[in-house]
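for the writeup, i need someone to sanity check this before i put it in the appendix. the sequnce is what the collaborator sent (i think, or maybe the updated version? ugh). structure was predicted straight from it, no edits. if anything looks off just tell me and ill rerun, i have time this weekend
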Amino acid sequence: MPTATLPVALSATAAATTATLDSPAMTSDQTDAAKRDDFAEQAMQYADQLYGAAMRMTRNPADAADLVQDTLLKAYAAYGSFKQGTNLRAWLYRIQTNTYINTYRKQQRRPFEAPLDDLEDWQVGDAESFTATASRSAEAEAIHRMPSGIVKDALQQVPEDFRMAVYWVDVEGLSYAETAEVMESPVGTVMSRLHRGRKLLRGLLADYAREQGIAVQGTTEKEKKP
């Protein structure tokens, strides 16, 4: 999928969502109008990130756009329960993840897995802009430098709980706190799963990294030998 498709799909999704929020049913009084304006200002800035995650989940531009729109409309409906000052991005990701899970279950399709089956180079690269380079882990750095097929195959071998922690932190660029909110788990649990997942991923990527001259931190001296 060309990178240029991303803003086109986002533009259509944003326009459709805005049109729905502007409908008489959604703006019955000044309070609703103020809520709509505040939501649009606060939440729509994350539309591109939501779309990137939706593409990795659905692997289809139209489905991804629908998922983002459904997510934003559900988030708007529940916006009164959102505690201002807390992490809005993580809250939106959690709504989107739950929407995806529920939609696939209703359609009797496979349950949610880390959306890596058709992870493309442009999708991995897109996540880079949301991950601070200075704080990027060795695994995140390897993910951004290695071919998507190698990364995908390695990640799919990591058990689900650990894979999801690696996915949200090292692919999507979420913080520990954000990942904990999305996964609805304590931060300590997320950190433990992330540590284990990164260790497993590091081992899986070590051979390829060594062949390509890419340093993966944490490898043993034995692993570094040709």
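The domain at 121-224 is CATH 1.10.10.10 (Arc Repressor Mutant, subunit A). The CA atoms of residues 16 and 136 lie 35 Å apart.
thx in advance!!
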